[in-house]
Structure formats: C-alpha cells, structure tokens
Amino acid sequence: MKKQYDVVVVGAGNGGLAAGGITAKNGLSTLVLERHNIPGGSATSFRRGRFEFETSLHELAEIGPNPFEGTVRQLFDELGASDIDWCFEENAFRVVLPGEDGFDAVLPTGQEAFIREMERQVPGCEESVRAVFQLGQHAMEALEYLGQGNPDMEVLASKYADFMRMAAYSTKEVLDALEMPKKAQDILVTYWCYLGAPADQLDFLYYVLMLILYVELRPAMPSMRSHEMSLALEKAILEHGGEVWYNSEVEKILVRDGKAYGVVVDGREIHADHIICNSHMSNALSSMIDSKEIPEGMLKLANARDLALSFVTVYLGMNRSCEELGIRDYSNFIIPCADSREQYERCCSIEDSKYAIMNCLNTVIPDSSPEGTCTLFFTTMYYGDVWKDVKPEEYKKLKIKIAGEVIGNCEKALGIDLKPYIEEVVIAAPPTFARYLKTPRGTPYGYQFDMWDSMMMRTMNVAAEEPIKGLRFCGACGERGDGYSSAYISGMNTGLRTVQDAKEGN
Length: 506
Ligand SMILES: Cc1cc2nc3c(=O)[nH]c(=O)nc-3n(C[C@H](O)[C@H](O)[C@H](O)COP(=O)(O)OP(=O)(O)OC[C@H]3O[C@@H](n4cnc5c(N)ncnc54)[C@H](O)[C@@H]3O)c2cc1C
Prior knowledge:
By secondary structure, this protein is α/β, with parallel strands linked by helices. The protein is 39% helix and 20% strand. The protein has 19 helices and 18 strands. A hairpin with a 2-residue loop joins β10 and β11 (259-265). α3 packs antiparallel against α4 (126-147). It is globular, with a radius of gyration of 22 Å. Flavin-adenine dinucleotide is lined by residues 10-16, 33-36, 41-43, 56-59, 249-250, 278-279, 283, 311, 313, 379, 433, 437-439, 444-445, 475-476, 482-485, 487.
C-alpha cells in the first residue's frame, strides 16, 4: 500500500469525484478517501420497500440533449464516464401561489415558448423577459471569451460591458431596472432556492446563467438516479489508475510551514503533494487543520460567511400511478407568498408555512417505480440555526408534523389527494443531512451567496481562497457554490489547477 501520492482527495461527493477524475486522467497518482461505503455524498439513492428513491437531485442544469453539450456532459464525456442514460424534462417548472391573487403557471423550456407563456401569464412583460434572456446570452458569450484565457480588460470593458456590470447588481435590481412587472418577477425568480439566496441578495449574473441553461438545455436527470453519475465517476477514477478507499474518514489535514503535505486516516499518515478537500471548509478549519497553520485571512473570510440553507425532505412511495393521482408536472413549486424575500424569511423559522417543491420522477421516467405506483419527493428549506433548540424527544414528532404540513399544502395547492395512497414514507431533516454529509447544520449548499460574496467575486478571488500551498477546496464550498453542476465544475477546475501546479513543479 502506497503512502505517498501526488493527490489526495478528501471526500467522494460530486466535487471530489470530479477533481479525482481530472487528476487521475492527467496522470497524477490520485487517492480519494470517503468516510461512507459508497460514493456521491448527496448524489445517491436509497431503497424502502419496493421503491428506489432519488436522495437529492431535482434537476441538472448543464447536460443538454445531444448535440447541445453542456459543461457537465462534456466533463463526463472527457473522463470517459459518458455511459449515462440522460432523461429530459419538457417543462422548466410549474409554480403555484394559492389564493385569490395567486397564480398557477407552467413554464415550458425553449426561450421563445418560455417568453410567450410569461406574456400570457402577465400581459406586457414580454419585452423585459426578452431582455433578461438577451443579457443571459451576452453573459454566456463573455464567459466563453474569459474561458479562452488571458482576457484583455479593455475588450471586457468595451465589448462585454453589461457582463461586467451584471455581477455587481442583484437579480431584483436588474429586473426592476428592466421595468418587469412584479408578478412576472415573482414567476421568473422561482428557481432562486436552487442558489439559496432571494432575488435581492442574489447576483443577477448567476441567476440568469442558471435560468438560461435550464430553459435552453432543458433540465436533465439520469434514468438510474444520481447514484448512476457517482458510480460512473468512481469507475472513471479507477480506470485512469486512481484509487478510491471507502470507510476512510480523514481526521487531519497535515500542514507544515504553510504547505499541506498529507492527511491522517485511521490513525495513519498518508502523504501527498496536493490535497483537495471536498469536506465542508468549516470542518477543515475547525478540526482538521492545526489552528497555528491557518492564515488569519482564511479564518476571517470563513467567519464572515453564513452557512447556507438545509432541507427537510419527504420521500413518498405511492400505491397509485402519477396519472391516477392527477400529477402531470415534474417540478411543482408551491409558494406561500409571491415575493422571494418573504419566502426566504419564512424559511428562517421552524413554524412558518414555507416554499416547497414537489417532484414526481415518474412524469419523466415512467418506469422509475413498479407499475401502478409512483414516487414523490418534497423539499422545503431552513436557514440559520433554527433546529438547535429542538429537544431530542420532540424531534420525531416535529419531523412528522412538518411532513404532514408540506404534503397537505401541496394537496391543497394542486387540488389532489395524496395521503390515502402513501405506502412508504421517509423524512430527512437537517440533522439527517449533518450526519450523512458531515456538514455544519446539515447544509448541502456550502456557504450562502451574498452580494459581496457572489459566484463572480469568489471566482475572481480563487487564489485568496487557497492561501495554504497544496490545499484546495471543491464542491459546494468551491467558487461556484451549491448544486450538482457547480460542484462538478468546481471539482473539474480544482483538478485542473492542481494538474497545472504539478506540471510547474509547485
Ligand atoms: C435534498 C437535496 C436536494 C438537492 N437538490 C439539488 C438539485 O436539484 N440540483 C442541484 O444541482 N443540486 C441539488 N442539491 C445540492 C447538491 O446535491 C449539492 O450542492 C452538491 O451535491 C454538493 O456536492 P459536494 O461536492 O459539496 O459534496 P457532498 O455531497 O457534500 O459530499 C461530500 C462527501 O465528503 C465526505 N466527507 C466529508 N468529510 C469527510 C472526511 N473527513 N473524510 C472522508 N470523507 C468525508 C462525505 O461523506 C460526502 O460523501 C440538493 C441537495 C440536497 C441534500
């Protein structure tokens, strides 16, 4: 058994698997260490009774049906992990605000169809919605230019001026400036929860890129749940000569004189020139790295950030098909109020009725459960430390109460009956995610985005995020924040920076 590697990756979540795949493929001896007995972190599945449930994936943004390849599909192809059966949604989302002043809008994919439906829902909004997509297109072109390397600041400032401005304004500020009617804004920002910050706290650039990618490339999912992607990446690492060890929790990241040189696992030291950490950055800073070796600026930055949201998720196995239950759409966003700031604030307490998403996989993959059945996946969000005062004896009752409310709200909003047809039920809460993912407060989203700490700011400051030589972070704590695509891409970028360092002998 080797004790010296070029690269050790701590954690086999989406970020760690992508990073390990890239370093192994580029000829670096790579060891991935994972505390569980399976790869994927959030990206996996589990069985109850006759159902196999997707654990976390609602939808992936950057796959794209052939021949329109998104970045994530390109990454999988490049690693030789392309043997995945991708399925695509027809619609972007359905959003329902119950009540007299409410709305029920199903937004299709495809820019023109999306804009037409927005105009039908909110007459007079077409011009502003079209302008949003034009800005998104402009941002994609600017990013392509940046991706070519060595950008000329004058070209950026002249040809891509709007792009440079976008990162400095919130989604709400831009939509207001485009004079988009409020109702159209409320519908358009439905996806805000995927990035974890409401429209007035979320930079427009990141939101518009996500929106355009979902609408243009269509939301995707693998036919065998996200576990299929995790297994494909694990296989790619092994085929490129890397190693993946399971049941191997890293206790320490070894740092001496400002340089990381290894890890401790099962009480043994394993040395490496480069460490890529897919465990939450707060874990590394609070317990894995000797505090004397942590630069002050790194601690200050981490402390200035808020931990991102966590979820309560409810997985239902139903003894009726989706047609029998009257469910047509895959992604159903049920919102308790129109404004994303108010929706966010409701998620800062346990009691308030919240934003919930109901997904039905069978609407996209009909045979994803036995004939005559379907699975449903409900998600609702929590911010801050609101679960800390829940007493152990109250925990189970509280989870059941929340699940009952979430299901009841969806039944009411969609006008369907679900409770009589439940065959299996599983409820996961922030403590479940904390235990499984080993993230503080159970967040799967890293640190929360803010206007001072947006995707663009993080990307431009990558070097400042890596002040310990030989140590990098990837996944939800990486520069692109939460989400499958972001974690994969941050893993890929971290892997590529590591390969470059190794080539230059750093
Ligand atoms: C319910 C839910 C729904 C979601 N829905 C979506 C969605 O629809 N679309 C989307 O894009 N994103 C979604 N996400 C978010 C997405 O899953 C995450 O942001 C992303 O997967 C995070 O990836 P990561 O690389 O940070 O790794 P994680 O998933 O956090 O995995 C980290 C891995 O590291 C391991 N680890 C930690 N510490 C150690 C250690 N010391 N030693 C060894 N191993 C260690 C853990 O066991 C874990 O396997 C959802 C998440 C959840 C939970």
